Amino acid sequence: MAIVVRIPTPLQKLTGDKAEVTAEGGSVQDLLTDLDRQFPGLKDRLCDPSGKLRRFVNLYVNEEDIRFLKQESTALKDGDEVSIIPAIAGG
User: Fold this and answer.
1) Which structural domain, as residue segments, surrounds residue 27?
2) Which has the least CB within 10 A, 21, 50, 60, 77?
3) CATH number, residue 57
């Protein structure tokens, strides 16, 4: 099951400067595990020690925010597109 994952610029150093990678998983949590297998350290940047996404990281599956779906349990299927979007703060 190939899922396209869009990587934000600050994390591309972990993916060999790739803006898009492919990964596998039946859920967002499985996808994060596969991404970390391929690109060690990536999951640590995205998730807290309990495995939950950090507050400043937003994930979208096919342009839908997973916070309004089933969060890390959101199901994935072949051909889905996942975007990792870091929160931006300013004043």
Assistant:
1) 3-86
2) 50
3) 3.10.20.30
- Predicted TM-score of the model (pTM): 0.90
Task: Report how many domains make up the chain.
Answer: 1
- The residue with greater pLDDT, 25 or 87, is 25
What local confidence, expressed as pLDDT, does residue 25 receive? 95
90 by Cβ neighbours in 10 Å (0-12 / 13-18 / 19+) ranks as: exposed
Question: Could you tell me the strand order of the sheet in which 20-23 lies?
Answer: 20-23, 3-6, 81-86, 57-61, 64-65
Q: Which helix (H) or strand (E) holds 21?
A: strand 20-23
Q: Which amino acid is at 4?
A: V
Instruction: Answer yes or no: is 65 within a domain.
Output: yes
Residue 6 to residues 50, 62, 71, 90: CA-CA distances in angstroms? 24, 11, 18, 23
Residue 89 CB neighbour total at 10 angstroms: 6
